[in-house]
Amino acid sequence: MSRSSAGIRGVVAVFFATLFVANPAAFAQEKKRRIGPPPKVYTQMPVICAKCHKPDGRGGPAYGGFAADLRATLLNKEGLIIVIAEGIRQRGMPEFKSILSKREIEGIATYLVEKVQGVYYDDQGNRITAEESARLDPRKNDAPAKKN
C-alpha cells in the first residue's frame, strides 16, 4: 500500500469519525414515532360513534336512548375522554375503555373537539351557525323547518 492511498484512507476515516461524533443521529436508524391520534380514529371511529350520534354529531334517538348532540357539548377534551372511557350508563352512553386504548379514546376526543364541536351543517351540507341550525331543527321548533 502506498503512502498516498494510506493518507487518503486516514483522512476519509477521520472525516467520517468526526461526522459521527458531531452528529450521531445521522447514522442512527431510529424508528419514527407516530404523533397524534391513530389513523383509524378518523376513519372507523366516526362510523361507530355515528351509530348513535349521527354522522354530523347531532345526536337524537338512538339505541340506548337519546344520544347527545356532540356539536353543542360543553365538555372540553378531558371531559370527553372521561365520558368516552367511563360512559354514562343512566343516559345510555356505554363505556369504551374495555375495547379502546387510551390513545384511541384521546384521539376520538381530539377529533370531536377539532372536527365536530361547534360545527353545524344544513341539509345541503353548507356550514351554518348554531342559531341557524336551531331554527332548522324541527325537534327544537314547534313549526316545521323551512325548505328553500
Q: What is the average of the pLDDT values? A: 76
Overall shape: elongated
- Strand percentage lies at 5-15%
Distance between the termini: 90 Å
Derived from helix and strand composition plus strand pairing, the structural class reads mainly alpha
Whole-number radius of gyration? 27 Å
Written as H for each helix and E for each strand, in order along the chain, the element string is: HHEEHHEEH
- CATH-defined topology of the largest domain: Cytochrome Bc1 Complex, Chain D, domain 2
Strand order of the largest sheet: 1-2
Write out the CATH superfamily name of the largest domain.
Cytochrome c-like domain
CATH architecture of the largest domain: Orthogonal Bundle
Number of helices: 5
Specify the CATH class of the largest domain: Mainly Alpha
Question: What's the helical proportion of residues?
Answer: 40-55%
For this structure, the quaternary state is single chain
Query: How many strands, which pairing sense, and closed or not: the largest β-sheet?
Result: 2 strands, antiparallel
| Total domain modules | 2
Please characterize this protein's 3D structure.
By secondary structure, the chain is mostly helical. The chain folds into two domains: 30 residues; 79 residues, Orthogonal Bundle (Cytochrome Bc1 Complex, Chain D, domain 2), CATH 1.10.760. Helices cover 41% and strands 7% of the residues. The protein has five helices and four strands. The strands form two sheets. The chain has a two-stranded antiparallel ribbon. A two-stranded antiparallel sheet has the order 3-4. Strand 1 and strand 2 form a beta hairpin. Helix 3 packs across helix 4. The protein is elongated. The mean pLDDT is 76.
